[in-house]
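Why run this: before we spend reagent on co-expression, it is cheaper to look at a predicted model of the complex and decide which construct boundaries make sense. The entries below are exactly what would go into the expression plan.
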Amino acid sequence: MSDTHANTVAYVRETMLPQVAPPASSTGPVGWARENLFSGWFNTVVTVISLAIIAWILIGIVPWILSPTWGATSLSECREILTAAGSVGEHGTSGACWGVIRERWVQLLFGFYPSDLYWRPILSFVLMGVALAPVLFADRVPSQLIWFSAAFPFIFPWLLWGGTIWGPLAVAAGFVIGYYVFRILGAATSNLIGLVVGVLAAVIWWLFLSGYVVDALASVLPLGIEEVPSRNFGGFMLSITIGVVAIACSLPLGIVLALGRQSDLMIVKYICIGFIEFIRGVPLITLLFVASTLLNIFMPPGTNFDIILRVLIMVTLFAAAYMAEVVRGGLAALPKGQYEGADSLGLDYWQAQRLVIMPQALKISIPGIVSTFIGVFKDTTLVSIIGLLDPLGLSNAIRADSNWNGIVWELYGFIAVVFFIFCFSMSRYSMYLERKLRTGHK
Amino acid sequence: MKKSVLFGALTVAGLAATAAAAGTLDDVKARGKLNCGVATGVPGFATPDANGVWNGFDVAVCRAVAAAVLSDPMAVEFVPTTGKTRFTALASGEIDMLARNTTWTFSRDVDLKFTFVGVNYYDGQGFMVPKELGVSSAKDLDGATVCIQTGTTTELNLADYFRINNMSYEPVPIETNAEAQQQYLAGACDVYTTDASGLAATRATFEDPSAHVLLPEIISKEPLGPLVRHGDDEWGDVVRWSLNALIAAEELGVSSANIAELSKGTDNPEINRMLGTEGTLGEMLGLDAEWAKRAIMAGGNYGEVFAKNIGENTPIGLARGLNAQWKDGGLQYAPPFR
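The model came back. Tokens follow.
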């Protein structure tokens, strides 16, 4: 210790002070508010104005929401209840009429699905959660569960539409046939020939043979559950079915298209470019009209090509084109060294894609992919325009009931809340996934 | 490979295709269900209730046809159609008949190749205004802002009417009836115009219906009726005479209350022919003798169907007006059952 200070200052502390807690004004809610809401005069003004606006909105909305009309059976009864409760504004009674939700929420969820069979959609959506778990939370569930995920695409439609068990089994058999043809021929000749013949064999099985086999098996051993026609599908069940199928099918299809677009094979490349640009250049509603009206005219009269299936195909193709461009963005963001690195390891094209390129490209594109998913899910409401009773279509049908004619906000509000729950969950999941996969590159 | 799932499913669907070559009547009988196109929701005309059972004035026509052909008024698959999809659904064979408050016009009949088998409701375009505006005639509407649904014949009718009367107006285009109600009540437009039946249904939902008046002018003819495809006259006859049976039943005093009594035989030969106790009318149609009896029992005669769904005792509260029997000064006039 030098005595320099002795000449300049009177007193120098020679021991450390004990640590004390930060002042109350900089911790807890107060500190948070000071730091985030009132850190300067501008910030303070903005905070006060924002709070005033929020309060103003809540004062308007909350009394409207807290309306004692849950038990009402018609709009006029709602109005009587509200008049009795004294909530009468200058434009007549003010308050929501929740009776419509109480009476119709089941219909908004399930459409016209037979009520004694509600367990089937519920079970299939629960099972969907189980099947998705190995895909979404791979590190937290046993890996054998992936076999159930593979079987689920066949269980799902069977549970929803019902019918004989042999139908989905025959579709699954097509994959098995195709796979074995590919294995046997691929080993005997070349992979390419095996692939082409395998796909052909599966297609021939599906198109020409499976129908007879299913009929024969169903007549010998009629195992099945009650069939539910597509016309009875509606409400959120319909939206979720279309959304989930489109989401699940569009990602692999989009990856293939994105790879095809970057391919060196000219024909493949131009087919992919043509497909992507055509689909992206056409509004979804146009494709839905094609599905609902034009296809009917092209097909032989009397052909019963299920309307929901037509919509599923169109929405999937639409989503796949957008997905392809999102994935292509991820591919373009990868440094060229990654491709060259994979090549230098001696990996062939598919190995390189699977082990090196795709894991990185998909990770980069997660926000874009999930955005596309959310967009597709919300786009499913467009099917109300072609006469399918999705939640928005049903809200119109409910309003046609003379008890509920004139109700707008309650129905749209309910639908909006349910959609928000789904879309927000998807968005949170994507953020969780991004955090989990963040392996450097900061 | 996911693509193949689609192909597979497509195949299954394709195999479900039925070979349709026979007439629609045979198809319907073989299927055991009548595919009937209705609206996705028009108050009083076609509405599903909380259990998904369809009711309404147009729906009653479907049920009558199903009762006549299949002996079961509930054997109907209702296919909700929108204004944009209804005609292709019928033309492509997805539905057997369309009962969706569709206006009978020249081009729909001739150019689109449909057969309108009759008129179950004579409608016309009207105007609704708030009472406080003090307007008593549509002729006073010069310079008004008008809420109007886009892409419908009402839009064209309105333009015609204002041009003929040398008046000007400002259109407020809207998409759906629900939107129109909100806009009109919020004062975004002075006048709301659509079919008079729709106006009455809309006004009935207002908190204070007496504060709004329907103007006396009806500016267009909107004969609404069921239709079938061109070229299958046997099926067209079945639908036409099922509707006529309802109308004639009212004229002849046959109702769901007394039909059991009357079908034992009466002194009126026309009732006997219609209910199948005399003659072979049912056989000529390709149906059994009691077809008309079942059609009437499905929901009652025309007057009963009207009263139950859209009549003056319902919230919609439409008067018979043009839809009264011809004897009462209306236009409903069924050809004789002979």
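The first helix of chain A runs from residue 4 to 8. The beta strands of chain A are 88-89, 92-93, 163-164, 224-225. Bring this page to Monday's planning discussion.
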